[in-house]
Amino acid sequence: MVAELSALQQIISALTGLNGLPAVIVECAVTTIYTSLGGFRISFITDNIQGVMVVCLIIIAVITVGVETHIDRSLIEPSGLLGSSLLGWQLIYILPVAILTNDFFISGFWMRTFASKTDKDLRIGTSIATVAVAIILTLVGATGLLAAWTGAWDGDPETGSIVFFLLLGELPAWVVGIVLVMTVTLSTAAFDSLQSAMVSTGSNDLFRNKLNFWWIRLAVVLIIFPVVVVALKSPDILTIYLISDLLSASSIPVLVIGLSDRCYWWRGFEVVVGGLGGLLTVFIFGTIYFDNAKDGANLLLLKNGLYANDWSAFGAFVAAPIGGVLWAFGAFGLRIALQWTMAKIRGHRFGALDRPPPLPPLSFTGREGSSEEDREPVTRLEASPVKGRFF
Questions:
Q1: Which of 62, 72, 71, 17 is nearest to 175 (CA)?
Q2: Burial of 51 (0-12, 13-18, 19+ CB in 10 A)
Q3: Which in 40, 61, 293, 378 has the greatest CB count within 10 A?
Q4: Looking at the predicted structure, is the pLDDT value of residue 55 above 70?
Q5: Which residues contact 376 (CB under 8 A, 6 or more apart)?
């Protein structure tokens, strides 16, 4: 949410020179009102609008940039963008790890996954989205090269995340106007999904649907106020994402171990220790790499971003998952040792490694009269008798 609002106010400032705060406030108010009235269903509708807007924005950008943009060939070689770089090779590892693990934290993805009618529909939808996103990212990514070679971007890393809009800002005023409207629409559609996901997570995961739904919505509204303040103070959108990416890189690998039936002995204790241990490993790596604890702590916030031209960011994204897994297995060994010792002292049977009882048989929970094609087995909606355990 911070990154979304920060991006919106930076884009408005870049395209119009105006203060982006009013637009941020209006977006928060509008999304809060219609998500409160329409719930998550309205978020699905705005997502469809978002998809159409993205396609229209890309088409307009491709045509207008192709016609109006003129590359200064004298800027191509000095930019160094066509040559090999240390950061380029590092990103081959950093980006897949950061994006893959961070997507596990996005509740909106999970809500859409569980809302799919069948697994077949889910696979078709994700396949189409993968192709579409790959094409869009390729086109949008190419604007970074064009922005540098036309002089629209001066190479400042702090504005590197909005070079697409800096390039469009050089186009005729009518194009800028259309882009501005589409940008606000896209941001609104993304922001309402985040709000809906927070409400769902708070209601279901934190309070187990025991707290009145409107209290959850009120809590989300109250959270938006500090989010707006942080968004306006955040100088770099990329840094915001990198911090959350580092957190997910340390905790998600140890979490997915527990998703395997073969790792039935994995507990929440290992996940928590592994996630915290991954961050501690990043701090230890940074302290050794920079030879002081202060810079080691700053590495947790990735204050130098990705453009430090050293191995700090790469090392952080290596240390986080590997350190997390090592700490988790250490915690597993400690837990097993303590439970075995307690069983011996109390004279009880040691059952920490016993396989849990099997789940009830799968059943069809679709609508009556649906076709055989749609009758894929899905898990019962009733609560599973096998509860997750922390120790």
A1: 62
A2: middle
A3: 61
A4: yes
A5: 118, 119, 120, 364
Q: According to DSSP H, which parts of 151-172 are helical?
A: 163-168
Euclidean distance between CA atoms 29 and 32, whole angstroms: 5
**Residue 288 to residues 190, 246, 275, Cα–Cα distance (Å):** 40, 18, 20
Q: 34 and 192 in contact (C-beta within 8 Å)?
A: yes
Task: Write out the two tokens for 217.
Answer: 């919505």
- Tokens 């190479």 belong to 155
Q: Are 313 and 88 a contacting pair, CB within 8 Å?
A: no
- CA 370-371-372 angle, to 5 degrees, is 125
> What's the whole-model pTM score?
0.77
Coil vs helix vs strand at 363: strand
Polymer length of the chain: 391
Q: Which of 368, 38, 28 is nearest to 221 (CA)?
A: 28
Find the helix packing angle between 293-300 and 268-290, rounded to 10°.
130
* CA 145/CA 137 separation, integer angstroms: 13
Q: Coil, helix or strand for 155? A: coil
CA distance 326 to 313: 20
Residue 253 and residue 321 in contact, taking contact as beta carbons nearer than 8 Å: yes
- The SS3 assignment for 391 reads coil
The number of CA neighbours under 13 Å toward the Cβ of 231 is 23
pLDDT, tens digit, 9 for 90 and up, residues 76-122: 888 888 888 888 899 999 999 999 998 888 766 777 787 788 889 88
The residue whose two tokens read 């991954």 is 278
Nearest to 10 by CA among 225, 180, 151: 180
